[in-house]
Amino acid sequence: MKRLFLPPPKKTINNIKMKRFLMTIAFAAFSMAISAQSLNVSSAIKKFDDNFKLGALYFNRAVDMTNAANAIDPFDESQVSQYEKLMEKAGKLYRQSITYLENAVAYVDGLTDEEAKAAMRVNLLNALGALESSYTRVDMLDKANAIKARRDEILKQQ
After folding, report:
1. Domain residues of the chain, as ranges?
2. Are 60 and 30 in contact (CB under 8 A)?
3. What CATH number matches the domain at 13-156, 1.25.40.920, 1.20.210.10, 3.40.1550.10, 3.30.2310.20?
4. pTM for the full model?
């Protein structure tokens, strides 16, 4: 009997290299967009968008590393060093995401037009959620609690 669905692609060297290559291009593109904005006057919404996307890329890579570390058998002592390396890399990525997510939130906070702020509400909540998770993962619990309180306050204003 034939399968109805094709199996997922195998993790070949070429697929892994292509994924790394595409991620490198994405990081470079968002970094260039952010640095170009410092030279030009562009809207705060565009600045938010670019910073949020770059922060999300770092955040998502950190989540992937954390998931890979959590998949390691905790009772296998030969894999403890691999777990620690993955968690260290994930911590660095979470810290990198914090910079861009904080910038994204700052751009929304800097908006003076109330309509624009209202339009950015969902995006702001997403950025605050990722920022709260990043703070929690790097043990910056005071900041995480402050962000959680801010998110709850925004949600109450509905």
Report:
1. 13-156
2. no
3. 1.25.40.920
4. 0.73
